[in-house]
Design a protein that fits this description.
single chain; about 210 residues; alpha/beta; Rossmann fold; Arc Repressor Mutant, subunit A; 2 domains; 6-stranded parallel sheet
Length: about 210
């Protein structure tokens, strides 16, 4: 544990949420709030200008995406720990957090005592996650363990992806699969969306057979 107050940065686009977190920690001298941020830009500015131990942040804020904010903050202050405070527990929000090294995830409907516990546990060098987040994370891990990215695709989409992996252009793919060029483009778009990638190169890296 630190021999000084834990310096907190509270980031949420709702003033009432920020005020609630501050009211929760205010009676305890072991915590001090060094700043509040309403979007990702303010988070980065405050972290650049102030020494901070713990960033408590929501997932739904304007500005840079959560992954960009977290990675940039960790580069600026390598010892900074991050706790997510959010109402979301579905794959769309949990998935992008994988590999970011967050120290905790507290669901907003938890009791205030849980938030205090999370802060203290993380300050002590451990991690703290709401039970439902742990459950959802385990479910996602099981899905990832037993299915490759390519298994999210239909058989025809996998055929198109295989041609993409062979560095063939859309016209060639269309001719070889007896499709129109427009249909190939449509398949390619669906493939990128399902794999969560932006184009051919990322799709090829994402999937291996």
């Amino acid at each position: 544990m630190l021999n000084r107050p834990l310096r907190l940065l509270i980031a949420d686009d709702h003033p009432l949420v920020r005020a609630g977190v501050i009211a929760t920690v205010e009676p305890f001298s072991e915590f001090v709030v060094i700043g509040q941020a309403r979007d990702g830009h303010e988070v980065l500015r405050i972290v650049q200008e102030n020494s901070c131990d713990l960033l408590v942040m929501d997932l739904d804020m304007e500005g840079p995406g959560v992954a960009t904010v977290i990675r940039t903050c960790q580069q600026l202050q390598p010892e900074l720990k991050v706790i997510i405070l959010s109402c979301h527990v579905d794959e769309r929000y949990l998935g992008p957090l994988k590999g970011l090294g967050i120290s905790g995830y507290v669901v907003k409907d938890e009791a205030p005592d849980c938030l205090l516990q999370a802060f203290r546990v993380v300050a002590g060098g451990s991690v703290w996650f709401s039970h439902i987040v742990l459950q959802k994370t385990m479910e996602l891990s099981q899905v990832e363990r037993f299915s490759s990215p390519a298994q999210r695709l239909t058989p025809r989409e996998r055929q198109v992806l295989e041609k993409i992996r062979e560095a063939k252009d859309n016209q060639t793919i269309a001719e070889e699969l007896n499709l129109s060029k427009q249909t190939v483009r449509r398949y390619a778009t669906l493939i990128y969306e399902k794999l969560g990638v932006k184009g051919r190169v990322e799709a090829i890296v994402c999937c291996s057979y």
